[in-house]
Amino acid sequence: MAIRHLLPLLMLAHPAVAETTASGDALRSALVGNSVQGSMMASGGYAEYYAPDGTIHGADYSGKWSIQADKMCFAYGEDPANCWAAVISGSHITWVGAGGEEGSGTISKGNAGGW
Q: Where do the domains of the chain lie, and which CATH numbers do they carry?
């Protein structure tokens, strides 16, 4: 089988090869002033608004966000910040940690929840 016939099979076996994590500038452009609703594997569902002043607003909680290099970091209450890289495709975001995909969500313009 020619190599050109194997390439599509290799892409199916390793889809992450085709995905590139977003730069810090791309994260800022896609998320600041917007909302994301989705689910994290470790903590379940979430819906948040990322205000331009660095605060996070949810239905019944708040926190702080920051962008450090090419990762989005989140701090809630007294807990230390956790940071994730992200793959953004249109309005879909996939949060990527050391072990791979750790959650995903849909980006909406503005403060979708009105918080």
A: 19-109 (2.40.128)
